[in-house]
Amino acid sequence: MQNNNNSSPVLLETVLQRIFSVRTITKQDQQLLMSSLLLKEGLDDHDRKQISRVFDGLLSGLIKAVD
Question: Do 65 and 25 contact (CB within 8 A), yes or no?
């Protein structure tokens, strides 16, 4: 599944906001974040920092992974 480059940044920002507000991440969210990092297209420094915050939250237990 590939995202359109025009909608990807908006989708990524929406997903990041939801993850931080509900403190959970789904498998689909994880896949989006990982593919965004691997593609490195359209990711600015802010996006990379936000994604790092998600993974730090997972490691520290502040964000829970759900199915």
Answer: yes
